[in-house]
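Hi L., both proteins are below.
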Amino acid sequence: MEKWTYATAGELTTALRAGDVTSVELTEGAIARIEQEDRAVNAVCAPDFERAREAAREADLALARGEERPLLGIPLTVKESYNVAGLPTTWGMPQFRNHVATEDALQVARVRAAGAVVLGKTNVPLGLRDIQTYNEIHGTTNNPWDHGRTSGGSSGGSAAALAAGYGPLSLGTDIAGSLRTPAHFCGVYAHKPTLHLLPTRGMVPPNAPALPADIDLAVVGPMARSAGDLALLFDVMTGPDPLTLGLAHTTALPPARHERLDGFRVLVLDEHPLIPTGADVRAGIARVADALADGGARVERRSPLLPDLADAARIYPLLMFSALAAGFPAELYEQVRELAGRLSDDDHSLSAARLRGITLTHREWLAADHRRELHRRDWRGFFAEFDAVVAPITPTAAFPHQQDPDLLGRRFTVDGTTFPYFDQLAWAGVATMPGLPATAVPTGLSAEGLPVGVQLIGPMYEDHTPLRLAELLEERLGGFRAPR
């Protein structure tokens, strides 16, 4: 079954329908791969192999009847933070190690209805609040390219599972680059959808009710090893929650603006006013820019229409940490509130913005939200002249494991210079803060042989535009590579 380990979902579907392989064979092959490789990678934290075998048998019967569903017989994994009936949902929090979900999250139900075989759930950081993936219950997920480095977070288990060959698809989430950063670190694809486009019901903390509610900035989204598979899974996940059918976005999404590279107008960015971009990431950006130009796209490096990236980077932590702090224990909240109270009025650092965000009043949140709406207006003007932005996801390739419990005191390094750990989220916030869609694509390897990716940011509700651009770039850049 080794020949199918890194096949795409599209290739597997063709083989299944031709009778070249069965879903049972694919599922047994994926299970064997997990049992062989995952002692070192530790991506799958809640296997569901017996039910996967049964689902595969049912898929083969459906294929024999001539049924056609978009994911029929395809094995995949699901991020631990989604409820899967009969499996633990812990979010890596020790107090919930025995919490078992009683029903599937809506997106899990959708992939099952599309015929997918759920192999199990993938590891996450504690509370989904890190750029790495480790917790007291399930341990550390390692990057399949270098076990001494992080796979990213918070969808690090899903990205590692894809890179390690545990099925061609996975479900993830994103509020701070949690889809895009692991994809970038592990050399796979991911898509952060337009904010509130895909329903999130059942992607909830342990013991929380599965309500049809949207968390500010947070999205669910697809991950894959090919751009075509990414678009396929996105389409399966798309559509309003039936519980909010009259309130959700129900009109059909527009098609991609262009089908060929020579129609695209693209702004390429590799510099941020508040954080440097490492040489490896800049090299990846250059490869993308060259591929675009060679394909006939109009490539620009600067535009007066681009919204203010420094202002965006300061609004983003206000909104994000305000949302995250809602679940903080009272003691922790008071500690942070005391730290925020010591800030000087002229401290405009990103670290200060994070502290202020945690303790934001509703009045202050409304002011930040108004600033966000001004950025959205500016982005509408920008996308009247451009179709996409190419930008870094983080400033560096995957970094060595760093598990100091003082998250706010951590540092990371860009080409020899250190910065506050969470400053590396500035690039993720370019798309997240205004709610724009962004597709993470691999661009090749760093000087140390690690994957490097970029994000393709598109206009709001025009998700198919960056997804199509990802497919076109895959043809020129080569896409996913299996770890050496």
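That was the first. Here is the second:
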Amino acid sequence: MRKFKIETWGCQMNEYDSQKMAGILKSYGFEETQNDEEAEIFILNTCSGREKAAHKIFTRVGVIRKNLGKDKIVGITGCVASHEAEQLFKKIPKLNFVLGTRSVHLIAKAVKTALEGKRFCDTSDHPESIEISPDLVDRQKKVKAYVSIIEGCDNFCTYCVVPYTRGRERSRPVEDIVEEIKVAVNKYGIKEVELLGQNVNSYNYNGKTFKDVLIEVDKIKELKRIRFLTSHPKDFNEELVKVIASSERICKYIHLPMQSGSNKILKLMGRKYTREEYLEKIDMLRSYIPDAVISSDFIVAFPGEEEEDFLLTMDAIQKVQYDNIFSFKYSPRPKTAALRLKENVVSKKIADKRLIILQKYQEKVQEIKHKNMEGKVYEVLVESVSKRNKTRLTGRTEGNHVVNFEAGRGEDLIGKFVKVKITSSTFTSLKGILV
């Protein structure tokens, strides 16, 4: 049996695509391995969300060729593949195949063609790529299921490469989503599902909206937790919040990227909402779910960001008091409209300083929030054994807090829900003991 290894970089959607490709290859008789020496086929499922993504790929391919042998089959899939397509063959000598994000269903064909000594490239927009049979999605050793409900994006935020790598929005039928989750539940014993989309809130299929998806998924009694990612603020509304608030299964964790607290910068970003509208939605959310755990994304030093704009961002962060923030310096991406703002580029020195200020403030907020969780007991879904300490397990609360706790040799607890008392904390995670 030919052995393959998939290396996944980037978002949950990439993780989901990797599970699809693994399942398809296994159905054709291939065997998966995590051992570099054993693997004959390497599939690099890539992300182009940040700068230097291509450089990371070149480095990894070089290591494979130099250390493991020139006869290894190496293919590139994911967003970088969609973006650069056949150009990758010119940049990487002896690359065997390239598959775009909407060609993952062709992975077996790509690998077989490569094994025959020929190159294969397909970055076309195949509608069938979104409808791979639920039975083929490989969820072995997974504690939760990623399920795509909508792929692509129509927002075209000026900094974002997603519409160019994953295409325009395409929603799946509610029935297909529910069927895939039921297969995950019945075949793998999955208790938690995470509904995926570049913007789940814009889901629309035959008049059904995202709230209708949540209502139908909430009817699957075997599920204990339902999550979703990501929400765009312009489509986040009261009707949706009411559905979340009324459910015992839908996690009260909301990731709502603001990106900037300045209306000027939000307009330059093409975000389609104002600072005031965003903050009103946060107030509305907390009026229905007072203990909601809220996270966000922020980009500092976007072209044209002046000190006043950055201070407005900090003011918004201080007003909301987020439970977690993912923050980045602006990174120019190919084909995006923000590239035209060259004359207003913020210097690296200022960008670094602003990012440090933002992150230092958020660290203090999270330290306080985590400190307030000490001494309390939370239900945790156990995800894995610590790599450094085999007696320590890692899991997450409903609010997506990472919890590390001692449990002896507790491998049999992976995939199960347990009660953990929080004993100490840092700004990144919590430590506890099994109750």
